[in-house]
Design a protein that fits this description.
The structure holds two protein chains of two kinds.
Chain A: H1 20-55, E1 63-71, E2 76-80, E3 89-92, E4 97-100, E5 107-111, E6 120-126, E7 131-136, E8 140-152, E9 158-166, E10 170-171, E11 179-186, E12 191-199, E13 202-213, E14 221-224, E15 228-230, E16 239-241, E17 248-252, E18 258-263, E19 268-274, E20 285-290, E21 296-301, E22 306-315, E23 321-329, E24 338-343, E25 349-354, E26 357-362, E27 368-373, E28 379-384, E29 390-395, E30 399-406, H2 414-418, E31 433-434, E32 445-446, H3 449-480, H4 483-495, H5 501-516, H6 520-543, H7 546-549, H8 557-583, E33 585-587, E34 594-596, H9 598-606, H10 615-639, H11 643-651, H12 656-667, H13 669-685, H14 688-693, H15 711-718, H16 727-763
Antiparallel strand pairs in A: 1-30, 2-3, 3-4, 4-5, 6-7, 7-8, 8-9, 8-10, 11-12, 12-13, 13-14, 13-15, 16-17, 17-18, 18-19, 20-21, 21-22, 22-23, 24-25, 25-26, 26-27, 28-29, 29-30, 31-32, 33-34
Helix pairs in contact in A: 1-16, 3-10, 3-13, 4-10, 5-10, 6-8, 10-13, 11-12, 13-16, 15-16
Chain B: H1 13-45, E1 52-55, E2 60-62, E3 64-70, E4 81-86, H2 90-93, E5 97-101, E6 105-109, E7 115-119, E8 125-133, E9 139-141, H3 147-193, H4 196-227, E10 231-235, E11 241-245, E12 249-253, H5 260-276, E13 279-280, E14 285-286, H6 289-320, H7 325-339, H8 342-357
Antiparallel strand pairs in B: 1-2, 1-6, 3-4, 4-5, 7-8, 7-12, 8-9, 8-10, 10-11, 13-14
Helix pairs in contact in B: 3-4
The chains are: A alpha+beta, B alpha+beta.
Chain lengths: 764, 369
C-alpha cells in the first residue's frame, strides 16, 4: 500500500471538520448516557428513600396540642359532648344540664330536673353514649338521655338542636340513703345500673338489671329486676371499675386490695383478689382505669408506680386452666401519685395524670406517646373522643379544656416490631405476628421477629440443599468436564433460572408435597445414598488397573456415574419401606396397632408437628431458584482462573484434583463467596414458592417438618388487604425495607468481592 | 480417599467423581421438572379410550381414568389401589369424578358406542347414544348407518348457531347495554343539572336503545328456536335417559373408535382451544387467552419502558465510565437492582405508583386512614 507513486491529494479542509450536528448529537448523547448510568444509582437510592419515608411515621410520637378552653359554671361536675365536640354540656351539682356552644360559649339550652322533694347527690355522665345518671337522695337513679338532633335546611346548612329526655327514676339502693356514686354498663342481654351508698360508714353496692324487650318496630318494654347487693364481702370500697360490657366488676379497697367479681347471669360472684402493690410502703391504689376492651386494668400507686393487670388463662392448683387476672406489664413510674387513668376509645392508649403532668401511654408497648403539663386545677372528668382525635377534660375551676391528638400509629414502637411483648389474653410474653382480627378491641401484633425467623429458616433449608449441588457442579463443569459438553451443560443448568417461581411453588405445593408425604423415608434414603455412592464409585475406579481406567476418558466421568447413581438411588428408594418398618414403627394412637410411619414417629418421639407442606419441600424447590445463580457465578469465577496457574501446578506434578483444590479454588474463593451471597439474597427474597408450598404460619421453631412465614410471603399475602397509611400497611413497608436492606448489603458485599477478584486476575 | 494400589493413580480421583454428582443432580432436576410439566400438561388434552366398568354391587360406570393411587391406610406390603374416574354428567351425578376401590371392579370393557361430549354447561359427559332428533324433526336411531354422519353434521350446525347466538347476545346486545348505561348516567346528570333539552335527547336515546334491544332479543330467540330442535337422546351407565341439546355440545368423539390420527387431531383442537379461547365455566374449562394476552401486554410495555434505560446504562458502563469509584457504585447499583427481591419492587410500585401518583388529587397529600 505504501508503494504507490501517486502523490497524495491533500484533502479539502472540510473533510476533517466534523459537522456541528454530529458534534451536538455526540454531546447530547454523551450527557444522556451519563445521566442514564447515574440514573441506576438514583433508582436504587430513590426506592430505598421512598420505603424509609413510608416507614418513618411509625416511629413518630403523638402530637397533642391544647385547642381551646371553654368557661363553664364552676359547680359543673360532669360533662358530655356531641361527636364533633361543637355543643358540649355540663351537669351542675344540682343535676341541671347546661349546653353551650364550644366556639363562643353561648348558652344554648338549660334543663333542670323536676324531682320534687328529692335532691341529686351523685352524677355520672357517659359522653360517648350521651347518657347522664343522676343518683338521688333516696337511693333512686334517674337516667337522662341527651340526643343531638341535626336538621338540614334547603341551602344544606346544618342546625343542631340538643334534646334532653329524662326517664322515670328507678329505685335501686336502700331507700332513704343518698346515692354516693352511680355507674351504668350495657351487657349483651341487659343493662346494669349500680349505685353506691354509705350505711353507717360502711359502703353498700346495689345493682339492678334492666332488660329491654324489643318488639317489631315498637318501643321496647323495659323490665327492671329486683335490686341485689354486690360485693358485700369487700371490707372497704375506694374505687369501683365496671367494664362497659357489665360482665365483671373490680372493687378496689382502701388497703390496696383489688377484688374481682364475675357476672354468672344472676349475681356477681367473687373470682379472685389481689394486691398489686403488696411490697410497697403504701400499698393503696391511687388511680385505676380499665383499658379499651375491658380485659386489662392499669393501676397506679401513690408513689407513681404503674402496673398493668390483665385476664388470661392461668393454671390453677387443681390443674384446670381458668381466665384470671395477672400482672402483665410494669410501666415506667409516673412523676408522682396517680390522679387518674383515662382510657382511649378504639385503641389501647390511656392518659395518666400524676403530679401536674399528663402522659399519653400505650398499654401494649408501655411507650409514652406524649407528655405535657396538666391543667392547674384538679381534673373532674376526662374523656377521649370516639375517633381518638380529641381529649376533653373538665376541671374544678370551671374550665372545659380541649386537646387535639394527632397519633396515626399508637401501637407502633421499636418494641412492637422487634421486642417480646406480653399481649392481652396471652399467658406469657411472645413475639407474634397477627395483624388483624374480627373485633375492634383486638390488640394488633406486629412483631417482625417470627417473620425474620421464618425467612432465615427457609433460606437455611434452601441453601443446605442448593449449595453443595451448585458448587460441586461448578467445580466439575469448569475444571473437569470436556469443553464440548460444557457448551451444552451450562445453558441447560441456566434454564433452571428461567422457570417462574410461581410454577415451582405450584408444583411444590400441589404435586411434590403430597407425593413425597407417604414415601418420605424412601426419599431420604435415595438422597442420602447419592454422596457415598459417588465417592465410592470414584474410589473403586481409581483402584482399578490402568487399562480398565483408560476406558473412562477424563471429563466423561459423569456419564458413567449417571447409571450407577440411578441404580443406587432406585435401590435405596425400594428399600425405604423396609427401613421405615425397622426404625420408625410406632403405636398408632387411633387403633393401638403398631404402624410403620415416619410422620407419626416424628410426632411421637420429638413432640414436634409434622406438616406435609414443610421446610424440606420448600428447601428442595427453592433449589431450582438458587442453584442456577450460584452455579453460574461460581463457574465463571472458577473458569476465569488464569491458565498459567493451572498449567504451572500440573507441570509441577500435582494431580488434577490437587490442582483444583489447592490452586484454583483458593484463587477463586472470593468469587465463590460472592456466588453464595447472591444465592443467599435470592433465597431470602423468594416469595411465591414460600407462599404456595408452606402453611404461612408465623411459627418460631427450626423443625424441618413444619412450615414458616417469611417476610416476603407475608407482604405478598397481606399487602393487598392493608389500608393505605394504616399501621399495618406501614408495618409491611417496614418488612419490605428490612428485606431491601438485607439483600442490599449481601449484593453490595458480593459485588465488591467480585471486583476484587477481577483485580486479582488482572495482576496474575 | 487415598493409598491406591497402583502408584500411577492420580491423587483425589474419587473427589473428581464426587463433584460430578452435583452436575448430575442439577441436570436431573432441570430435565425432570421440564418433562414433568410437559407430560402432565399434555395428558390433559389427550383422549384415551373410555371403559365401561362393572362393579361388584351391580352398578356400572362409564368414565375416563383420571388417576390411580394406593388407598390410605392399606398395608405397605400388599397395597390396595383405588381409581378415580371422570364420569362427567355433573347434573345427574352431582360430581364429575368418582373414586372406586380397585377390588370392586369386576370387569372393564371398551364398547365402541361410548360417546364423549364436551359441553357448554355442566362439564363433560360420557354416554351411550340411542338416537338423534334432527333439527328437521326426523329421528335417526343409533342402529342406522347414517347416524354418525348425521350426528357430526348436526353438531357442526349447532356450533354455528351457538356462535351466532354468542355474537348477538355478547357483542351486539352487550354494546346496546353499554350505550344504555352511558345514556342513563347522562340522563341522571342532566336531571341533576336541570337541562331540559338534554333530558329530552337522552330520553329519546334510551327509547331507541330499548327498541334496538327488543329487535336483537327477538333475533336471538329466533336463532335459539331454530337450533334447539336438534338433540341427542342417550343413556348413561345406569340406563338413565339423557337428552343433550346439540347447541350445548362443543366437541363430540367416540373414544373407543378413534384412530391415532383422529386422537392427535382432537388433541390439537383441545390444545388450540386452551391457548386461543376464553375461559368458560368459572375458569374450569376453555382457554387462557386473556391471561396470555395480559402477560404479553405487560411484558411489551415493560420492555418499551425499560429497554432504553438498560441499554443506556450498559453503554455507559462499557464506553463512557472511567475506572473509579463512580463506576463501582453504578455496578453495585445494577447488581442490587437485579438482586433485590421482586416483592420489594411490588411494595414500592403499590406505595408509589398506586397510592401516591395514582391517588385522586384531592386526597393526594396524605393517604392516611
Amino acid at each position: 500500500m505504501a508503494t504507490t507513486d501517486e502523490k497524495p491529494v491533500p484533502a479539502p479542509e472540510s473533510r476533517f471538520t466534523v459537522s456541528p450536528l454530529t458534534l451536538a448529537a455526540d454531546r447530547w448523547m454523551g450527557r444522556l448516557i451519563r445521566i442514564g448510568g447515574v440514573g441506576v444509582v438514583v433508582a436504587v437510592l430513590g426506592m430505598l428513600g421512598f420505603l424509609i419515608f413510608q416507614v418513618f411515621p411509625l416511629f413518630v410520637g403523638a402530637k397533642v396540642s391544647p385547642t381551646s378552653s371553654l368557661a363553664v359554671p364552676a359547680e359543673a361536675v360532669a360533662f358530655g359532648e356531641d361527636e364533633y365536640g361543637e355543643f358540649p354540656f355540663v351537669v351542675r351539682r344540682d343535676g341541671s344540664i347546661l349546653f353551650q356552644r364550644a366556639k363562643d360559649g353561648t348558652k344554648l339550652l338549660e334543663w333542670t330536673p323536676a324531682l320534687g322533694e328529692r335532691r341529686v347527690t351523685a352524677i355520672r355522665s357517659y359522653p360517648r353514649t350521651g347518657l347522664v345518671f343522676l343518683g338521688l337522695s333516696d337511693g333512686a337513679v334517674q337516667e337522662v338521655r341527651v340526643v343531638y338532633r341535626s336538621t338540614f335546611d334547603d341551602a344544606g346548612k346544618r342546625t343542631v338542636e340538643p334534646v334532653v329526655t329524662p326517664l322515670e327514676p328507678v329505685a335501686i339502693g336502700r331507700a332513704g340513703l343518698p346515692c354516693v356514686d352511680v355507674w351504668d354498663a350495657k351487657g349483651p342481654q341487659s343493662r346494669l345500673l349500680l349505685v353506691r351508698q354509705e350505711e353507717g360508714g360502711k359502703p353498700l353496692l346495689t345493682a339492678v338489671r334492666l332488660t329491654e324487650r324489643k318488639g317489631l318496630g315498637g318501643k321496647g318494654k323495659v323490665t327492671v329486676s329486683a335490686p341485689f347487693v354486690v360485693a358485700a364481702d369487700a371490707a372497704s370500697v375506694d374505687q369501683v371499675l365496671l367494664p362497659s360490657t357489665a360482665e365483671s366488676l373490680l372493687v378496689i379497697g382502701r388497703s390496696g386490695e383489688v377484688r374481682a367479681y364475675a357476672d354468672d347471669g344472676t349475681a356477681f360472684t367473687f373470682l379472685q383478689s389481689f394486691t398489686p402493690f403488696k411490697g410497697a410502703a403504701d400499698p393503696a391504689v391511687a388511680a385505676a382505669g380499665l383499658i379499651f376492651g375491658n380485659v386489662s386494668v392499669v393501676l397506679v400507686d401513690r408513689a407513681g408506680a404503674q402496673q398493668v393487670w390483665s385476664m388470661y388463662p392461668q393454671l390453677q392448683p387443681d390443674g384446670k386452666s381458668l381466665r384470671r387476672w395477672g400482672k402483665i406489664h410494669e410501666g415506667e413510674p409516673l412523676a408522682g401519685a396517680g390522679q387518674g387513668i383515662y382510657a382511649a376509645v378504639g385503641n389501647k392508649c390511656y392518659l395518666a395524670a400524676a403530679a401536674g403532668r399528663l402522659q399519653l401511654i400505650n398499654m401494649t408497648t408501655g411507650t409514652v406517646r406524649w407528655e405535657g403539663p396538666a391543667p392547674a386545677a384538679p381534673l373532674r372528668q376526662v374523656a377521649f373522643a370516639g375517633g381518638y382525635d380529641r381529649i376533653t377534660a373538665l376541671t374544678a375551676d370551671g374550665q372545659l379544656h380541649r386537646w387535639a391528638i394527632v397519633d396515626h400509629h399508637p401501637e407502633s414502637s421499636w418494641r412492637t416490631f422487634f421486642g417480646k411483648i406480653w399481649y392481652e389474653g396471652a399467658s406469657a410474653p411472645a413475639y407474634a405476628w397477627q395483624s388483624s382480627a374480627g373485633s375492634d378491641e383486638f390488640e394488633p401484633k406486629y412483631s417482625l421477629v417470627p417473620l425474620f425467623y421464618g425467612t432465615v429458616k427457609g433460606t437455611f433449608y434452601a441453601l443446605l440443599f442448593a449449595l453443595p449441588i451448585a458448587l460441586t457442579a461448578a467445580v466439575y463443569v469448569s475444571q473437569f468436564l470436556r469443553p464440548e459438553y460444557r457448551q451444552v451443560v451450562k445453558p441447560v443448568m441456566e434454564v433452571m433460572a428461567s422457570l417462574p417461581s410461581v410454577v415451582l411453588g405450584f408444583l411444590a405445593g400441589l404435586w411434590l408435597a403430597p407425593l413425597v408425604d407417604p414415601r418420605l423415608v424412601s426419599l431420604f434414603c435415595a438422597i442420602g445414598i447419592l454422596a457415598p455412592a459417588a465417592l465410592s464409585a470414584g474410589f473403586l475406579w481409581s483402584v482399578l488397573p490402568q487399562p480398565v481406567r483408560r476406558q473412562v476418558k477424563p471429563g466423561m466421568e459423569f456419564l458413567w456415574l449417571l447409571p450407577f447413581l440411578a441404580l443406587c438411588a432406585w435401590a435405596a428408594w425400594q428399600a425405604g419401606p423396609a427401613i421405615e418398618s425397622c426404625f420408625f414403627t410406632v403405636k398408632d394412637t387411633a387403633t393401638g396397632l403398631p404402624i410403620a410411619d415416619f410422620r407419626e414417629w416424628w410426632r411421637q418421639t420429638t413432640g414436634a408437628t409434622y406438616d406435609s407442606r414443610n421446610s424440606l419441600v420448600v428447601g428442595f424447590v427453592m433449589g431450582f431458584a438458587v442453584i442456577p445463580i450460584v452455579f453460574t457465578i461460581a463457574e465463571d469465577a472458577l473458569s476465569n482462573v488464569p491458565d498459567s496457574l493451572v498449567s504451572g501446578s500440573l507441570a509441577l506434578g500435582a494431580s488434577r484434583w490437587q490442582t483444583v483444590w489447592s490452586v484454583v479454588v483458593p484463587t477463586a474463593v472470593s468469587g465463590i463467596v460472592s456466588a453464595v451471597m447472591i444465592g443467599f439474597g435470592r433465597a431470602i427474597g423468594e416469595t411465591m414458592i414460600v407462599v404456595m408450598a408452606t402453611g404461612n404460619t408465623a411459627v418460631m421453631d427450626f423443625n424441618p417438618f413444619s412450615g414458616m412465614r417469611t417476610l416476603s410471603a407475608n407482604i405478598a399475602v397481606e399487602l393487598p388487604e392493608a389500608a393505605a397509611g394504616h399501621t399495618h400497611y406501614r408495618a409491611l413497608f417496614l418488612g419490605a425495607c428490612c428485606l431491601f436492606l438485607l439483600t442490599f448489603v449481601l449484593n453490595t458485599v458480593a459485588e465488591i468481592l467480585r471486583q476484587r477478584l477481577r483485580e486479582r486476575y488482572k495482576v496474575v | 480417599m487415598s493409598a491406591p494400589s497402583d502408584s500411577s493413580t492420580p491423587r483425589g480421583e474419587a473427589w473428581v467423581w464426587f463433584s460430578g454428582l452435583g452436575l448430575i443432580v442439577g441436570l436431573g432436576m432441570v430435565i425432570g421438572l421440564l418433562s414433568l410439566v410437559f407430560l402432565n400438561g399434555a395428558t390433559v388434552f389427550w383422549a384415551p379410550p373410555v371403559p365401561l366398568a362393572q362393579l361388584d354391587d351391580g352398578r356400572a360406570l362409564i368414565g375416563q381414568l383420571a388417576q390411580r393411587r394406593i388407598r390410605a391406610g392399606s398395608p405397605a406390603d400388599q397395597p390396595k389401589y383405588e381409581r378415580q374416574y371422570q364420569v362427567g354428567l355433573r347434573e345427574l351425578n352431582g360430581n364429575s369424578y368418582l373414586w372406586v376401590d380397585e377390588v370392586r371392579i369386576k370387569a372393564e370393557t371398551f364398547p365402541a358406542d361410548i360417546l364423549g361430549l364436551e359441553r357448554v354447561e355442566n362439564g363433560p359427559a360420557f354416554v351411550r347414544p340411542r338416537s338423534l332428533r334432527r333439527s328437521d324433526g326426523q329421528v335417526v336411531a343409533i342402529a342406522e348407518p347414517a347416524f354418525e354422519a348425521a350426528f357430526q353434521a348436526e353438531v357442526a350446525a349447532a356450533a354455528a348457531v351457538r356462535e351466532k347466538l354468542v355474537e348477538i347476545t355478547r357483542h351486539r346486545i352487550g354494546d346496546v347495554n353499554a350505550a344504555m348505561d352511558r345514556a342513563r348516567v347522562g340522563l341522571r346528570r342532566a336531571e341533576d343539572l336541570k337541562l331540559a333539552d338534554e333530558i329530552a335527547a337522552r330520553k329519546a336515546e334510551i327509547a331507541a336503545l330499548d327498541a334496538r334491544y327488543a329487535v336483537l332479543q327477538a333475533e336471538a330467540a329466533k336463532v335459539t328456536a331454530g337450533g334447539a330442535v336438534a338433540a341427542l337422546v342417550a343413556q348413561d351407565a345406569a340406563g338413565r335417559e339423557v337428552v343433550v341439546p346439540l347447541t350445548q355440545v362443543i366437541r363430540a368423539w367416540f373414544p373407543n373408535r378413534l384412530e391415532t390420527w383422529d386422537r392427535v387431531k382432537l388433541f390439537a383442537s383441545r390444545l388450540a382451544e386452551f391457548i386461543f379461547d376464553e375461559p368458560r365455566e368459572a375458569n374450569t374449562e376453555g382457554g387462557l387467552m386473556p391471561a396470555i394476552f395480559g402477560t404479553l401486554v405487560m411484558t411489551v410495555f415493560m420492555s418499551l419502558m425499560v429497554t432504553p434505560f438498560g441499554v443506556i446504562t450498559a453503554i455507559y458502563l462499557r464506553e463512557y465510565a472511567q475506572q473509579g469509584p463512580l463506576l463501582r457504585i453504578v455496578r453495585i447499583s445494577v447488581n442490587n437492582l437485579a438482586g433485590v427481591p421482586s416483592i420489594v419492587f411490588g411494595v414500592f410500585g403499590l406505595g408509589f405508583f398506586v397510592y401516591v401518583l395514582g391517588a385522586p388529587s384531592t386526597s393526594c397529600s396524605s393517604p392516611i386512614s
